[in-house]
Protein backbone atom coordinates (compact mmCIF):
# COMPACT_ATOMS: atom_id res chain seq x y z
CA UNK A 1 0.00 0.00 0.00
CA UNK A 2 2.83 2.42 0.85
CA UNK A 3 4.39 1.74 -2.56
CA UNK A 4 1.16 2.68 -4.35
CA UNK A 5 0.82 5.81 -2.23
CA UNK A 6 4.36 6.91 -3.12
CA UNK A 7 3.59 6.39 -6.80
CA UNK A 8 0.40 8.41 -6.49
CA UNK A 9 2.20 11.24 -4.70
CA UNK A 10 4.91 11.28 -7.40
CA UNK A 11 2.30 11.34 -10.19
CA UNK A 12 0.39 14.18 -8.53
CA UNK A 13 3.63 16.12 -7.96
CA UNK A 14 4.79 15.63 -11.57
CA UNK A 15 1.36 16.72 -12.85
CA UNK A 16 1.44 19.88 -10.71
CA UNK A 17 4.92 20.76 -11.98
CA UNK A 18 3.81 20.20 -15.59
CA UNK A 19 0.65 22.30 -15.15
CA UNK A 20 2.62 25.14 -13.52
CA UNK A 21 5.19 25.05 -16.32
CA UNK A 22 2.48 25.04 -19.00
CA UNK A 23 0.68 27.93 -17.30
CA UNK A 24 3.87 30.02 -17.14
CA UNK A 25 4.58 29.31 -20.82
CA UNK A 26 1.07 30.53 -21.70
CA UNK A 27 1.56 33.64 -19.56
CA UNK A 28 4.95 34.32 -21.16
CA UNK A 29 3.45 34.01 -24.63
CA UNK A 30 0.67 36.39 -23.61
CA UNK A 31 3.15 38.96 -22.23
CA UNK A 32 5.29 38.77 -25.39
CA UNK A 33 2.15 39.35 -27.48
CA UNK A 34 1.21 42.37 -25.35
CA UNK A 35 4.75 43.78 -25.61
CA UNK A 36 4.55 43.45 -29.42
CA UNK A 37 1.12 45.13 -29.47
CA UNK A 38 2.47 47.99 -27.35
CA UNK A 39 5.54 48.47 -29.55
CA UNK A 40 3.37 48.55 -32.67
CA UNK A 41 0.97 51.05 -31.07
CA UNK A 42 3.87 53.28 -30.03
CA UNK A 43 5.25 53.25 -33.59
CA UNK A 44 1.79 54.28 -34.87
CA UNK A 45 1.20 56.78 -32.02
CA UNK A 46 -2.03 54.84 -31.39
CA UNK A 47 -3.12 56.23 -28.03
CA UNK A 48 -6.34 54.17 -28.07
CA UNK A 49 -4.46 50.85 -28.03
CA UNK A 50 -1.84 52.22 -25.64
CA UNK A 51 -4.58 53.32 -23.21
CA UNK A 52 -6.04 49.80 -23.25
CA UNK A 53 -2.64 48.26 -22.45
CA UNK A 54 -1.64 50.78 -19.76
CA UNK A 55 -2.91 50.74 -16.22
CA UNK A 56 -4.52 54.09 -15.40
CA UNK A 57 -2.00 54.22 -12.50
CA UNK A 58 1.07 53.63 -14.70
CA UNK A 59 4.32 55.24 -13.58
CA UNK A 60 7.21 55.62 -16.03
CA UNK A 61 10.79 56.48 -15.17
CA UNK A 62 11.49 57.91 -18.61
CA UNK A 63 14.73 58.03 -20.60
CA UNK A 64 14.54 61.83 -20.14
CA UNK A 65 15.16 61.22 -16.41
CA UNK A 66 11.68 62.29 -15.38
CA UNK A 67 8.82 60.40 -13.78
CA UNK A 68 5.71 60.46 -15.94
CA UNK A 69 2.22 59.12 -15.31
CA UNK A 70 -0.59 58.13 -17.67
CA UNK A 71 -1.63 61.63 -18.80
CA UNK A 72 1.99 62.68 -19.24
CA UNK A 73 2.81 59.73 -21.51
CA UNK A 74 -0.33 60.29 -23.59
CA UNK A 75 0.42 64.01 -23.86
CA UNK A 76 3.97 63.33 -25.03
CA UNK A 77 2.69 60.98 -27.72
CA UNK A 78 0.04 63.47 -28.89
CA UNK A 79 2.58 66.32 -29.10
CA UNK A 80 5.21 64.22 -30.91
CA UNK A 81 7.67 64.09 -28.02
CA UNK A 82 7.43 60.29 -28.26
CA UNK A 83 7.64 59.47 -31.97
CA UNK A 84 9.84 56.85 -33.63
CA UNK A 85 10.55 55.76 -37.17
CA UNK A 86 11.82 52.40 -35.88
CA UNK A 87 11.46 50.49 -32.63
CA UNK A 88 13.12 47.15 -31.98
CA UNK A 89 12.77 45.41 -28.63
CA UNK A 90 14.90 42.50 -27.48
CA UNK A 91 13.33 40.77 -24.49
CA UNK A 92 16.07 39.08 -22.48
CA UNK A 93 14.03 37.88 -19.51
CA UNK A 94 10.45 37.51 -18.33
CA UNK A 95 9.86 36.60 -14.69
CA UNK A 96 6.60 36.06 -12.86
CA UNK A 97 5.74 36.75 -9.22
CA UNK A 98 2.09 35.96 -8.55
CA UNK A 99 0.09 38.41 -10.71
CA UNK A 100 3.16 40.41 -11.79
CA UNK A 101 5.26 39.94 -14.93
CA UNK A 102 8.68 41.58 -15.06
CA UNK A 103 10.10 42.05 -18.56
CA UNK A 104 13.72 43.16 -19.08
CA UNK A 105 15.91 43.74 -22.08
CA UNK A 106 17.07 46.34 -24.55
CA UNK A 107 15.40 48.42 -27.20
CA UNK A 108 16.87 50.16 -30.20
CA UNK A 109 14.89 53.13 -31.49
CA UNK A 110 15.20 55.84 -34.10
CA UNK A 111 13.40 58.95 -32.87
CA UNK A 112 11.91 61.38 -35.41
CA UNK A 113 10.28 64.80 -35.51
CA UNK A 114 10.61 66.81 -32.30
CA UNK A 115 11.57 63.78 -30.21
CA UNK A 116 14.96 64.05 -28.48
CA UNK A 117 17.80 62.51 -30.54
CA UNK A 118 15.73 62.62 -33.75
CA UNK A 119 17.47 60.85 -36.63
CA UNK A 120 19.92 59.05 -34.35
CA UNK A 121 19.98 55.42 -33.25
CA UNK A 122 19.29 55.16 -29.51
CA UNK A 123 19.88 52.02 -27.47
CA UNK A 124 18.11 51.75 -24.12
CA UNK A 125 17.81 49.22 -21.32
CA UNK A 126 14.24 48.76 -20.14
CA UNK A 127 12.12 47.11 -17.48
CA UNK A 128 8.36 46.73 -17.94
CA UNK A 129 6.13 45.66 -15.05
CA UNK A 130 2.78 44.12 -16.02
CA UNK A 131 0.08 43.34 -13.43
CA UNK A 132 -2.82 41.03 -14.03
CA UNK A 133 -6.21 41.96 -12.63
CA UNK A 134 -9.38 39.88 -12.97
CA UNK A 135 -9.64 40.70 -16.69
CA UNK A 136 -6.23 41.24 -18.23
CA UNK A 137 -2.58 42.22 -17.98
CA UNK A 138 -1.87 45.96 -17.80
CA UNK A 139 1.48 47.74 -18.00
CA UNK A 140 1.80 49.31 -14.56
CA UNK A 141 5.39 50.54 -14.38
CA UNK A 142 8.17 51.11 -16.88
CA UNK A 143 11.78 52.23 -16.69
CA UNK A 144 14.02 53.01 -19.65
CA UNK A 145 17.60 54.25 -19.59
CA UNK A 146 19.60 55.45 -22.59
CA UNK A 147 22.91 53.59 -22.82
CA UNK A 148 24.08 54.62 -26.30
CA UNK A 149 23.28 57.28 -28.91
CA UNK A 150 24.83 57.05 -32.39
Question: Your description of this structure?
Answer:
The protein has 150 residues and is of the alpha+beta class. The protein has a single domain (2-149), classed as Nuclear Transport Factor 2, Chain: A. The protein is built from three helices and six strands, in the order ααββαββββ. It has a six-stranded mixed beta sheet with strand order 2-1-6-5-4-3. A hairpin with a 5-residue loop joins strand 1 (54-61) and strand 2. The model is unreliable at 12-22 (pLDDT under 50).
Low-confidence segments: 12-22
Radius of gyration equals: 20 Å
Shape: globular
> How far is the N terminus from the C terminus?
70 Å
User: Element order, helices and strands?
Assistant: HHEEHEEEE
How many H/I helical runs? 3
Oligomer: single chain
What is the typical, i.e. mean, pLDDT?
88
Say how many strands there are.
6
By helix and strand content, what is the structural category? alpha+beta
**Percent of residues in beta strands:** 35-45%
What would a concise description of this structure say?
With 150 residues, the protein is of the alpha+beta class. It is built from 3 helices and 6 strands; from the N terminus they run H-H-E-E-H-E-E-E-E. Helices cover 39% and strands 41% of the residues.
Amino acid sequence: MKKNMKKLVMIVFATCVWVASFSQQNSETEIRTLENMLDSAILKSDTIVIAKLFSPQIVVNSPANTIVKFDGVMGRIRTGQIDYSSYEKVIENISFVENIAIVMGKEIITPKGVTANAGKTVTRRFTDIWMKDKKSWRLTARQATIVLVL
